[in-house]
Amino acid sequence: MVFIAGPRQVGKTTLAKQIMEKFQNPLYFNFDHPEDRKNLIERNWKPENEILVFDEIHKWRNWKSWLKGIYDKEKDQHKILVTGSARMDVYRKGGDSLQGRYHHYRLNPFTFGELTSQIQESFFSLLFERGGFPEPFLSKTNRNVKRWKKERMDRVVREDIFSLENLKSLFQLEILVDLLKDRVGSPLSIRSLAEDLSVSHPTVESWIRVLESMYVIFRVTPYSKKLNRAVKREYKIYFYDWTEATSEGARLENMVALHLLASCNFKEDVEGERSSLHFLKDRDGHEVDFLTTIDGKPTSLIEVKKSDTSPSRSLIYFHNKLNEKQCKSYQLIYDLKNEVLHHTIYILPMERYFSFEE
After folding, report:
1. 45 to each of 66, 70, 71, how far by Cα in Å?
2. CB 24 within 8 A of CB 53
3. How far, in Å, CA of 240 to CA of 134, rounded?
4. Could you tell me the CA-to-CA distances from 111 to 11, 207, 249 in Å, in that order?
């Protein structure tokens, strides 16, 4: 059994239907559609249906215990594919554990490395401007892009979150989303957000967890191993749709964050490695945008710049401080054509890094 999870409209259903084409008599059930929901609950399928696809089933209260029963009884008759726009490991809702019965894959927005074999590299700027969700990226007009962005966020908050969470004020949650757009890439102050929203500290924390569970945002935590004066409690947030960031610099950093997250997810879900994304910051004012790890060991230090090719002092500082032979340090530049090697720091055009990173 396979789970595919990711943000709304990232392409899960399209991928599922492409997979279905490889099987005889496939059946697709969307839990949001009343007729499909009825057929699913009544188990209206036959042994000759080689694959069963259950979309958005996590919205059903007892979905895990129900699915466990289906799998244990019919696993020799059908392949089962489950897709959803929420973190399905979060929404258990009273069901029995499915541990050991499924493989979990996360589907992220398009990254540059996925596109280079099919389109020209000039599309990197379009990816930056429109984001990696298929519909706006492939749209012919900016008007359609703006409409898509508004409709998508409305549906996430008013349909997806409303169906899963007992929130008293969706309006305040929408305000929180707007506030977070101005805070992309900065250490998040829950106290400040609580004051702006006139709610408690725990309430803001719970709302942020909801947005994470629905693949609206993701958090990046500090790395502190072997660093005595490193910051440990702060965290930063980024959007899966990096065009939500309000400033150009934040959008650029957010785009890089998503690319790195997608790479970490791939290493975990496909290659079986324990990979994670962090940032570096200490109490002396040194800070580097990102650090990736495998099995807890640093593999890449990454600083993001629009055009500055002078090596970041903090990047040099942490490179020397970590002193990890397997960890390479990169300064990724948006406006750069040719790479530069400055001692141990690789200064690269951003699109080139993500061409071989994938």
Report:
1. 15, 12, 14
2. no
3. 13
4. 13, 28, 18
Residue pLDDT, tens place only, 169-217: 788 899 999 999 999 999 999 999 999 999 999 999 999 999 999 999 9
Pick the CATH number of 2-106 from 3.40.50.1820, 2.40.30.170, 3.40.50.300, 2.30.29.150: 3.40.50.300
Task: Measure CA 229 to chain center.
Answer: 29
What is the CB neighbour count within 10 angstroms for residue 43? Answer: 12
| Domain boundaries of the chain, sorted by first residue | 2-106, 112-357
Question: For residue range 239-286, what is the model confidence (pLDDT) as tens digits?
Answer: 999 999 999 999 999 999 999 999 999 999 999 999 999 999 999 999
Cα angle 104, 105, 111; round to 5: 165
